[in-house]
């Protein structure tokens, strides 16, 4: 849920609590993370790497991961996580918009980050430009729910949730933004990762694969 933007990111409270949250993810979320990275190869860009939770899941077929994490406290922990896995991972505290002048990526990974960027449409357009034609966008994201849960999400977004959780907005139509940026969605499904009674607005996740035509 870390933010990727053009400005400096500073979320001291979120940087303290996110490592605890990440270390206690449910097995359902961990399984979705593994599925999101399965079969990747070549050169990969990961946006909003947080503390590097995904790093252990990258397959050996990945040649290099450039992991973007603009929150400096989280980036420091991501660097430690990168040093403990076999796949070469370079952690940078640049924003997605700040990346440029490099060869296009074969794939881009977004995990619990598009909910927190200030300009999701602009970020996705930038990611589109960083991806080679035919390359994949792999995403695992909080998304807007319907009905009562959706109304609860809107209430959470309008009050304290974004302030406490690194600008996370739970009621975003992220997949519409992905399509609007020019991607073509190949596969997509939604999963509830918490019991229906759980009073959290982030239980519904979208797992999908989109590509740049």
Describe how the helices and strands are arranged:
Layout (H helix, E strand, L loop, with lengths): L11 H12 L3 H11 L4 E6 L14 E7 L3 H11 L6 E4 L12 E7 L8 H11 E12 L4 H12 L2 H4 L9 H7 L3 E9 L11 E8 L2
Parallel strand pairs: 1-2, 1-4, 2-3, 4-5
Antiparallel strand pairs: 5-7, 6-7
Helix pairs in contact: 4-7
Explain what you see.
The chain is of the alpha/beta class and 213 residues long. It contains seven helices and seven strands. A seven-stranded mixed beta sheet has the order 3-2-1-4-5-7-6, with helices on both faces. Helix 4 (120-130) crosses helix 7 (174-180). The model is unreliable at 1-6 (pLDDT under 50). This is Phosphatidylethanolamine N-methyltransferase. It holds the Pfam family Methyltransf_23.
Unreliable spans: 1-6
User: Mean pLDDT score, rounded?
Assistant: 91
Number of helices: 7
Largest sheet: 7 strands, mixed
Q: How far do the termini sit from each other?
A: 27 Å
Q: What's the quaternary structure here?
A: single chain
Q: Roughly what fraction of the amino acids lie in strands?
A: 15-25%
Can you tag this structure with a few keywords?
single chain; 25% strand; disordered N terminus; 213 residues; seven-stranded mixed sheet; SAM-dependent_MTases_sf; Phosphatidylethanolamine N-methyltransferase; 7 helices; alpha/beta
Would you kindly provide a brief summary of this structure?
The chain is of the alpha/beta class and 213 residues long. The protein is 32% helix and 25% strand.
């Amino acid at each position: 849920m870390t933010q990727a933007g053009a400005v400096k990111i500073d979320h001291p409270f979120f940087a303290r609590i996110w490592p605890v949250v990440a270390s206690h993810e449910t097995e359902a979320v961990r399984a979705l993370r593994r599925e999101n990275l399965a079969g990747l190869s070549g050169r990969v860009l990961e946006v909003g790497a947080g503390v590097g939770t995904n790093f252990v899941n990258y397959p050996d077929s990945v040649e290099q991961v450039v992991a973007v994490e603009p929150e400096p406290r989280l980036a420091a922990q991501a660097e430690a996580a990168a040093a403990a896995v076999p796949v070469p991972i370079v952690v940078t505290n640049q924003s997605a918009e700040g990346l440029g002048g490099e060869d296009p990526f074969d794939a881009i990974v977004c995990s619990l980050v598009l909910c927190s960027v200030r300009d999701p449409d602009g970020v996705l357009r930038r990611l589109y430009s960083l991806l080679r034609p035919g390359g994949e966008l792999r995403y695992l994201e909080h998304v807007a729910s319907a009905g009562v849960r959706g109304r609860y999400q809107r209430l959470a977004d309008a009050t304290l949730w974004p302030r406490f959780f690194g600008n996370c907005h739970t009621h975003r139509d992220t997949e519409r933004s992905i399509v609007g940026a020019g991607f073509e969605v190949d596969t997509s499904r939604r999963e509830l990762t918490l019991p229906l009674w759980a009073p959290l607005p982030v239980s519904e996740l979208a797992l999908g694969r989109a590509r740049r035509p």
